[in-house]
C-alpha cells in the first residue's frame, strides 16, 4: 500500500465508532485513502470522516496521483476550482 492510495470497497460491512459505539455501514463502492499510520480514512458514504486502523497493511511509498486528486477535489469543493480551470481553458473535471 501507498500513502494517499485511494481504495474502493468491494463489499458491504459495518464498523463501530470508538466513541459512542455507533455503527456505520460501509457499502460496496465507498472510498477511503491510506494514511502514513496504516489507517484508512473514509471519504464517501455513511462512514465519511471515520478512520479505521488496518493491522495487515505495510505502507511503502506515496501515491502521488491519488494525493493530487484528493487535493484538487478538496480545492474544487472549497473554491470552485472547476470554474477557475474552465476560465483558463483547462479541461480537468472532478466529480
Task: Tell me what the structure shows.
This protein has 95 residues and is an alpha+beta fold. The chain folds into two domains: 2-61, no CATH class; 63-95, no CATH class. Helix content is 24%, strand content 27%. It has two helices and eight strands. It has helices spanning 64-79, 81-87; strands spanning 2-3, 6-8, 13-16, 23-26, 31-34, 39-42, 51-53, 61-62. The strands form three sheets. It has a four-stranded antiparallel sheet, with no helix packed on it. A two-stranded parallel ribbon has the order 1-8. The protein has a two-stranded antiparallel ribbon with strand order 3-4. A hairpin with a 4-residue loop joins strand 5 and strand 6 (39-42). The protein is globular, with a radius of gyration of 15 Å. It starts with a strand and ends in an 8-residue tail after the last helix. The mean pLDDT is 86.
Within the largest sheet, what's the order of strands? Answer: 2-5-6-7
Biggest beta sheet attributes: 4 strands, antiparallel
N-to-C order of helices and strands: EEEEEEEEHH
The overall strand count is: 8
Number of domain modules: 2
Overall spatial form: globular
Please report the number of helical segments. Answer: 2
Stretches where pLDDT is under 50 for at least 5 consecutive residues are none
Q: Ends: how far apart? A: 25 Å
